[in-house]
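Hi support team,

I've been running sequence recovery on a batch of backbones for a student project. Most finish fine, but this one hangs at about 90% for roughly twenty minutes before it completes. I'm not sure whether the input is malformed or the queue is just slow. I've pasted the structure tokens below so you can try to reproduce it. Let me know if you need the job ID as well.

Thanks,
M.K.
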């Protein structure tokens, strides 16, 4: 059974609008990728197509690569056949400009796909980011090279190492997107932008080759060194944050095209790591809790918690009690004697006061 596809509509003005359709988040499954390659090939061959706009169905650009596909990739697939040969060699190097029209989410491979385009138009509330490190891997479709060249090295490291996404407005501020428009004008604006690039009224920019957002080598090395220190401090036993930094550094020192293959090979190695396998297991386990047969599918409404009883007023118990109280839930605290009870109550009062101050 096919898992998603893309559709293509050629407008009267010569813009081919390719739409990703794979509910609920338009994930990039192998079927979607194959369909995307087919439609792109047709758009590039057709004489009546001047430019291409890439968007997602039902208000979502793409939530990224479908992680159900990990471990199921074709055995004889050439490393980099999609990220290098297609995205870089076909889309980015094409003689027809591409513009990404982003709404909803552009995460992981979705954002990497958008960054390959020659311009990006977004809605204000769209969510953009590269959260791959949460799964024990690194961006594997050129993200380690293109993001630093669009938003700068420091911001790119922050977004990747912390798996931090940003809204469309902030993305525009940092140069990740070129324009912000309302959802009802998104595709039409992207089409106009694509035609202006085709007519050379706007610059035809390849993200991979940009250097205007990068610092000099000396400053870049300082930033990368600081990132390594921070990564070791926060996650000393994890390999993938350091691998991500190494791949980014490869592009800074030796050029982005050389680093693309290192990104592919490093990503392939990390996919097989026990860390990534464990983090993916956690991801699927968390999703499974929202799909429990005869429970989550019955439309039940959770009852509001009115009162909670906590046994023990130590640091942990006091912290739990504080969270309940700040959520307007009555707390009953049980301790072994009155002395410990009073100590716990006083600690909770202190925590509550601090919590109220933090909320202001």
């Amino acid at each position: 059974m096919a898992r998603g596809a893309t559709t293509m509509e050629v407008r009267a003005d010569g813009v081919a609008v390719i739409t990703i359709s794979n509910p609920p988040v338009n994930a990039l499954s192998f079927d979607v990728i194959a369909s995307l390659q087919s439609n792109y090939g047709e758009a590039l061959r057709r004489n009546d197509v001047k430019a291409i706009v890439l968007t997602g169905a039902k208000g979502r650009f793409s939530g990224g690569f479908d992680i159900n596909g990990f471990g199921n990739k074709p055995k004889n697939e050439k490393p980099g056949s999609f990220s290098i040969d297609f995205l870089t060699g076909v889309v980015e190097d094409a003689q027809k400009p591409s513009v990404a029209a982003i709404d909803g989410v552009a995460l992981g491979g979705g954002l990497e796909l958008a960054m390959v385009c020659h311009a990006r138009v977004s809605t204000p509330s769209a969510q953009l980011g590269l959260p791959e490190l949460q799964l024990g891997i690194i961006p594997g479709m050129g993200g380690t090279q293109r993001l630093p060249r669009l938003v700068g090295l420091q911001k790119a490291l922050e977004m990747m190492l912390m798996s931090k996404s940003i809204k469309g407005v902030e993305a525009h501020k940092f140069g990740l997107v070129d324009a912000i428009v309302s959802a009802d004008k998104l595709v039409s604006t992207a089409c106009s932008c694509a035609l202006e690039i085709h007519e050379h009224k706007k610059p035809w920019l390849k993200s991979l080759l940009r250097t205007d957002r990068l610092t000099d080598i000396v400053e870049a090395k300082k930033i990368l060194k600081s990132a390594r220190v921070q990564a070791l401090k926060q996650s000393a036993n994890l390999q993938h944050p350091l691998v991500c930094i190494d791949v980014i550094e490869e592009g800074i020192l030796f050029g982005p095209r050389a680093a693309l293959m290192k990104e592919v090979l490093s990503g392939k190695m990390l996919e097989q790591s026990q860390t990534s396998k464990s983090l993916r297991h956690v991801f699927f386990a968390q999703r499974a809790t929202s799909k429990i047969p005869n429970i989550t599918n019955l439309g039940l409404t959770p009852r509001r918690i009115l009162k909670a009883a906590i046994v023990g007023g130590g640091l942990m118990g006091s912290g739990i009690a504080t969270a309940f109280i700040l959520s307007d839930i009555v707390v009953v605290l049980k301790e072994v004697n009155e002395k410990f009870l009073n100590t716990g109550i006083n600690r909770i009062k202190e925590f509550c006061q601090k919590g109220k101050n933090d909320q202001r």
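--
Follow-up from support: It reproduced on our side and the slowdown came from queue contention, not your input. The mean pLDDT is 93. No action needed from you.
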